[in-house]
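Cast an eye over this sequence plus tokens and explain the fold to me:
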Amino acid sequence: MSRFVLLGHPVSHSLSPAIHAAAYRALGLSHRYDAVDCPDGAALAAFTEQLRSGDVAGANVTVPHKGQALSLADVADPLARETEACNVLAYRGGRLMAYNTDVTALSQELERLAPGATSAVILGAGGAARAAASACRLRRMRRVSVFGRRFSDLGLEAPGASALVRLGARVFAWPAAGHANSAFTEALSEADVVVQATSAGMRHGPPGDGVAALIPWERVPSSALAYDVVYTPAVTPFLEAARRRGLAARGGLGMLVGQAAGAIRIWLDVEPPLAAMEAAARAALGDAT
């Protein structure tokens, strides 16, 4: 039996333990998967030593530690390097390896839900926003615009801004509520996909009404996809507003299952049982709401 963990703060809302438990059952394995609350960087660093010692076989990393997890690793895969964020850690050949399976998971979601998309608007400036920009690059989108609060004062000097630019995205300041913003409105008016990549609306996180109210929904094309990386609750204020506009709107459950599948491929070198994992995720989400 091996032990795998989720490291983040907070983690009590996570569906990952249910998803991984279902996967291991379907594979006939007795592995454990635990959510471990790491309130600060020191706690994260201390826990990575358990990976190096072999006490833990692999780790997922979630907010707010994806950036520090990358810095603690010895080697990073290309997607982790370009997004400056890591959500999977594995110890192999005497080295702590960092991966980013968020990118491929979201790319698969966009391929399934918006196969012809060529332009995207991303709300947020953290690791999820960079993963979204990287996913859009994988989908060969031509226009990607990212709006983040940290860009309002620092612009391209803000943390993460240079990574977004290298990914081909345009970076803009967060629009002020109640004020017209020509760059924001213009980007939304031509968007095939709008990605909500902040923690707004997440259970135990900041409220999501402000982000939903920020968007002039009447300017978003009726054919656009609204995608919220938040998966709990199942319906966030962002998704509610998008559906009132008549848009196709999806939460981040598919992305969550996809990134977990990517982690299992890395840790165990097996094809994950996606149907069992998705069923467990939906059941756990229903229990949480």
Notes: The chain has a mean pLDDT of 94. The chain has two domains: 3-99+256-288, 103-251.
